[in-house]
Write a structure and sequence with these properties.
Length: 100
Amino acid sequence: MRDSDVKKEIERMIDNRKEDLVYRLRKRAEIRRQISTRKSVQDNQPDRLSDLLEEAANEIERLKGNNIDAGIDRNTIIISEYDIGTEEGYNKFIQSRNRL
């Protein structure tokens, strides 16, 4: 695989992560906590909706983890073992996939 193909694949993986529900929930919670006009931010109080978004993201990750442990999604198991978003992680993933 050429370097340009590897870079394109890494970019695609990063873009896919941005579409991931867990990522979007956490990003939205982070954004809410940084809005300076929000009363909870001004009063230095917790933002209950941001906390709920984080809790939902954690629960989704926990449920995904249970599926991995049960061996339901073989591709997720393979991908989760590598540092996706780096060239080294991508290369390890490709090597593993080629062995299957």
